[in-house]
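Issue 218. Parser rejects a valid record. Input:
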Amino acid sequence: MPYKFFPLLLLFYLPLMGWTINPDNLHANFSQIDKQLAKALDLIDEHPQKSLRISESSLLLAKNENSLYKTMLIYYILTRVNQNLGFSEIAFQYADSAEINALSLNAVEMFSHITKTKVDLFLQYGKEREALNLVSESLKKAKKMNNNQLIVESLLLQAHLHEQQNRLEEYIQTIGKAIEIAEKVNNKELMAECYHRMGSMFFRSSQFNEAIEWYSKAKQIRDEISDTLGVISILKNISLVNRDLGKLNESNALLNEAQQLAYNLGNKKQMADIYNLLGSLALRAKKSTEALEYYNQSLIIREKEGYLASVASTLENISRVQKDLNLFDDATSNLHRSIDIRIELNDSRGLASAYNDLGNLLSEKGDLAEALKYYLSALKIRQENNLQAEIARSLTNIGLTYRKLGSQKNAIKYFDQALEMISDKQDPIGKAYVFIHQGNTLIDMGNPSKALESFKQAFELRKITNNPITISQTYRSLANAYSDLNSYTQARNYLNKAHDLMDGIGDEIGVADILNELGNLALKENDYDEALLRFQHAALLYGKHFQLDKRGLCLRKIGEIQTKLGHYTIALENLKLAHSLGERTENEKLVELTLLALHNFHLARGEYREALDYFHQHILMKEMLGSKHHQESIWQASLDLELDKKVEEIKKIENEVESLRTEAKLKSIELKQQTLMRNFFATVSILVLILALGSVYGYVVIRQKNKWLNEANEKLSQSEENLKKMVQTKDKLFSIIAHDLRSPFTALVGLTEVFSHNASQLETKDISDYGSLIHQSSQKLLTLIENLLDWSRSQTGKIKLEPLRISLDKLTNEIINIHSLQANTKSITLKNTIPNDIVVYADYEMLSAVLRNLVSNAIKFTQENGSVELKAHRNDNNIIIKIIDNGVGISPENLKKLFKLEESFSTQGTDQESGTGLGLIVCKEFIEKNGGKISVESEVNEGTTFTISLPAS
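Output the parser choked on:
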């Protein structure tokens, strides 16, 4: 290649390799256009709009100079810039222009870069087949040219495609072929690159030992060829591996070595990146102030150099530290700055990340409704851009938020969706993380058996990584589940394993936490000597690391045990020290429990005056905490009201998210259909040859293929029909509840306003009347919301049917007790004539919900002094249940509308009670899910009978 191209090659390759080029510092031989190109290359990903402006202004100069090589470089830059800005058609046009120029110049070194950009463009818009064809064609050309360097680069490009498609085995095989060729021709640069790629693949799949092995081989070669920038890159990667293995000191040393090399090169971009990594490492080590210092140093460099995308990332990192330091206003301000930058850059992926961080911040502040809204917004963006791994993270965050809100079933729904998205091989750490939270939620729901299954799956994934910290955490989760199942021996075994791992890496606080859990386990088994030993050891370690509240907690339990064992002198010392530590750390719960322990101590000694004094202090502290708890309850009610206000907005986003999810499923079906079509045509081509030889076998195969195509078409049509039906049902549902939600809310607002302005002037009777009206409005809202939640659970398909044998007499007695107050206000008699030997086979919660709805409706539409009766009898293998009232009845025209959402209607009860008609729809859904039927008979002014048929076994 002519010498005049070398300066431009330098401009091209240095930014690709990670060098930062400052146009002001370029050699004097470089022209103004060269400096502009260097800056444009430097800002392709950091500030694509600015890179675009520079490139477009440089293009005319390059053409005036008649410089084909510079024009080619500008076309390449414009390709990448338009790709980043989302202008795919323009990007393809510039890529073609760059390729034409490269061919004219025989600039083979450009082919791989241009082809890779085209592949990424195809993948970005879901054109995997076109990407595959392009890579195959590139490899054929390289082999035809017999250019080993191009063959290796084409193989690396093919591996890149396999990586994007999560085909890890093919990735390893392809990189293996590339390594074989690179080693054969002894091309050191290519060997180092191949080893580096292999190490990164193992790192991403959490196979850390293999990753370090390959990275070390790459580093050795880069050292040999004095590739300092390559060494820096590998040092950063090995540091990250050590960080994820919990080896924070080793990780820190590697980053400091990389930082020194970057400083010697004067490479500010690398220096900023390393400061950023040092910040994340300090944050992992719980050194928030140090992390903030590193992030700010990174920010200063990036702002000065105009690296806008990296500035946004650093602002997000700073906000995470500020969140940990409870600097919520500063954290919020930095996140909004980041969001503004992401919007300016048209960076949807980065915007979703910023929304996710804002959700984390709001969740930490306790604004869960607003957090949920931002998590859902991030999820929507990620679904629109088909970012699979990031979609899973959003789903996990939404699940965690629903768990905080106490909506465990919603949490489980989102955790299940996240698990569907994550590959065991591609992201075992991420999948294990979701399994752990799924298990914790199941513990909350009182289901340790299922939680145990989730924890076991998390363990199988985490043990691959050989990370002692995460494996230890999983052992503790398993122990927690076994303890709830009263399997104390297994729980102890897992805690001992967790203890050995923490002890092995010298994490004394982690060891202390596990010793405390072992002590609690021993207490459950009444093994006081063992418990005492564990708590004493934990207290010693907590004291060593100034974890004073945790030390106080252990000392209290030590004192309680010593009191029971009659070791009074030492018990009193430990209890007084625990009390002192509780006050010093302002741990009011520790103080309260220690006061109670001191009361029990003096009571055991027969010192009744002292015991009474401590009991009095305990009661005062308990009442104070109760008052705080009451305030928290008021706050929680306020949060619930705020959440209610945002429910419609949240539901709207959730519906959009669900529509995108459904679209993705439909697209998947379409892709399968296209694959079948391609397979079909390929089969036909082969069959033509076979038929020429007189084979009849081909005809059978064609018929089978046609059958598969028809089945695929039917599935697609059915999916489209189901989607339309879902949308119609949703619209109808909103139209049903809109008016009924407004009415009680209007009443509540009006009545509470009267209270707030005229409370001091109201008489007792007025207060009682208003209170009754508020109760009625609240009761109506509660009923509506319960029915709505039941119905939505049944529609999502996530409701879990758990049928069992139910004593019908016992269940109906409970329901009568629940509705007795409602019946008494209208002097209605509730009768239960169901024999005590009637047993029905159904889901308890569903059947209970159905019977509650029907009894409540019967009371609502029965006049004063009327009656409601529950009957049941066996008919072959079915149980027939009847709910009979002598109320106002239902007209024939309205009778036809029952159980239909599209014709749902509502009438007022005898005391002007109202509803939405949704309750009966829920009843029908639940009964049919249990394999039963529901029907109704009624005459106006004669009463109504609802009949349910359910299996007896």
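Fixed in the parser; the record now loads. Confidence is low (pLDDT under 50) at residues 1-29, 630-648, 668-672.
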